[in-house]
Amino acid sequence: MSRNWFGTLVSVVVTTLSVATMSSLGVGVLVGLTTDAGALPCDQLPGTAQPFEGNRHIPYEGAPHQPYRTMPPTSGPHSPRVVIPGVYRAPIREELQVHVLEHGHVLVQYAPDVPPADVRALERLGRRHLRDVVVAPYPALGHGIGLSGWQRLQRLDTLDERTVEEFITTVAGRYDHDWQHGATDCLTG
């Protein structure tokens, strides 16, 4: 009898916690929707606006396409595969980078000359924003740090954590398969 009672108690606790968690998530989403002030105007964004290079999927990995006009890329043809946000220790192919951006995420990438302590700081920033950021090495940069969002780019010669944080918090989520929360293409809109 006591074993049956214990199982019932565990079921009630688990159900209660599940309902409480889901309710708080729902309230958090509703609060976010009702208090969203909209996107910052283009002149208040860090980095520089970049021209739209398209948003089509390439048919397969390694398929030929027009070269990207920016380094790192900020839009254009991209892989049908997706890389999830997180911290990576290996470079990410440019076609995958663009798909990350198309989903509203920000890329924080660094060249081989960035000191290990700065790489660790970038990784900490990335972990602080796990839903929004991909941090990875990008040897093609040659020098410094590249911050990219959909049609947005900022290059840094050295680490400035405040600048990286500002780029992440103001650029992430502006674009997710289309402009979001009143954001626009800063070159045409």
From TrEMBL:
<protein>
    <submittedName>
        <fullName>DUF3105 domain-containing protein</fullName>
    </submittedName>
</protein>
<dbReference type="Pfam" id="PF11303">
    <property type="entry name" value="DUF3105"/>
</dbReference>
<feature type="region of interest" description="Disordered">
    <location>
        <begin position="61"/>
        <end position="80"/>
    </location>
</feature>
<dbReference type="InterPro" id="IPR021454">
    <property type="entry name" value="DUF3105"/>
</dbReference>
